[in-house]
Amino acid sequence: MKPRVVVDGVSWVGAIDWDRELFDALIPLPEGTTYNAYLVEGSEKTALVDTVDPRTAAELDAFLDGVDTLDYVVANHAEQDHAGQIGAVLDRYPDATLLCTPKCKGLLVDELHIEEARVQAVDDGETVSLGDRTLEFLHMPWVHWPETMTTYLREDNLLFSCDFFGSHLATSDLFVQDERMQYEPTKRYFAEIMMPFRSLIRKHLERLDDYEIDVICPSHGPLYDRPQLVTDWYREWSDESTQNLVLIPWISMHGSTRSMVNHLAGALIDRGVRVAPFDLAVADLGRIATELVDATTVVIATPAMMIGPHPKVAYATFVVNALRPKAKFATVVGSYGWANKVVETLTGMLTAFKPELLEPVLIKGAPREQDLASLDKLADAIAEKHREAGLL
Ligand code: FEO
Q: Residue whose CA is closest, atom 3 of ligand 1?
C-alpha cells in the first residue's frame, strides 16, 4: 500500500489489523483494528506521529523505505500498539529525536528501554517547528493512561488525538464514510477505554473548543473530516446522565436463574422500562460495556456455585466495576441450592462506583409464585426510581 494522503504533506502510514480478535488479552475486537501513524512533512523537517503495534511492523517499515530523513518521532502514548516500534524507528534514523510528555518518557524508558538521551520531553503547550508547519503538544492525561497527549498541527488544523476519539474498526476507508456504521464501534471504544475517565474527558473537550480543528486523526479507526460528529458523541457519552435502561448480566446453570431473568425482564418491559439482558456464558463484554454508557440500573443475576456467584458472573462484575459506569442503582437476583453469600460477594465488588443497592431477590431452588411476586416488586422499585429520575 502507498502512504495515504490526509492533506497535502500529511500522510497516513499505519497498519490495518484485519483479523486481530483480542486486545490486552481481554477486549474482543469483532471488527479488527488499525494502528494509525502519520508522517508530517514540513519545509525543513519531518516528523512521524506514533508508530504501530509490533505485529504489523512490516507495514510501517515498508512506508519508511520511502523516507530518507526523519527528524522527530512523536509519541502521544506509551502503549505498545502505538509505541512498540519506536525503538526500531530510532535505530533506523539515528539523528531523530523522540518527543513526548515527561511521564511518557519514563514509561518508554522502563517498558521499551528507549535510550533516555534520544528523548526530548515536551511541556504542555510547547511547540516544535518543522519549517512551514508547527506541532503543538497538548498534554491530555488519562485518555487513557496518565502520560497521554495529543498533537495539534497548527497550519492545517489537524489534531492527532491519540486513543482519544478512536475506534477498533479495520476498514479500507481512511475517513469516516457512514456515520451510522461508525457510531457503534466508536461508542464501544469509548465504553471500554474512556468511560472511567469521563470527568477528565469533559475537561479535554472544553479545552479543544479553543482550537480550530478540520480533521481529527485518532490512533485507531478512520479519521473524522467532520470533527463535530465525534466530539458531539463524546459530549453525550461523557455526561453523567443515563437512560431508562436496565442492564442484566446473567448466567444460569439449570434454568432457575434464567426463569427469574425472563420474568424480571418481562415485568420491567410491562412497566415501560427498557432492558438489556446478556447471557454471560456467551456474551461479548464489549456489548455489555456499550450498554453501560446508558444504563441507569444494573441487575446482576447468578446461581450460587458452592456458595458464591458463578465465576463468570464474578468476572463480569469485576469488569463492570472497573469501567466505573454511571449507573445509579444496582441489585442481585438468583437462585441457590442450600446456602449462599452471593449478595455480599457481588456488592462488595462494586467499589469504583457507588450505586444505591435495591432489595435483592435470592431464592431457594426453582422460582415459586411468591418468588415471581418478589421480582414484580423489584420491577416496581426500579420503575419508580427511573420515574423519580425523570426517565420514565
Ligand atoms: Fe491504542 Fe492505549 O493504545
A: 79
User: At how many degrees (to 10) do helices 179-189 and 227-238 cross?
Assistant: 40
Domain CATH code at residue 368: 3.40.50.360
148-158 pLDDT tens trace: 999 999 999 99
How many Å lie between the centroid of ligand 1 and the Cα of residue 297?
29
- Burial of 213-239, coded b for 16+ CB within 10 Å and e otherwise, reads bebbbbbbbbbbeebebbbebbeebbe
- Give residue 391 CA to ligand 1 midpoint distance, Å: 35
Q: Whose CA is nearest to atom 2 of ligand 1?
A: 79
Residues 250 and 221 in one domain: no
CATH code, domain carrying 230: 3.60.15.10
Q: What's the pLDDT at 146?
A: 98
From 238, 269, 303, the end of a domain falls on: 238
Domain residues for 348?
A: 246-385
- Looking at residues 39-57, what average pLDDT do you find? 98
75 and 108 Cβ atoms separated by less than 8 Å:
yes
The residue out of 208, 238, 268 marking a domain boundary is 238
Q: What is d(CA 294, CA 314) in angstroms, rounded to the nearest whole number? A: 22
Strand bridging mode 245-250 / 46-49: unpaired
- Give the position, in ligand 1's atom list, of the atom nearest the Cα of 162: 1
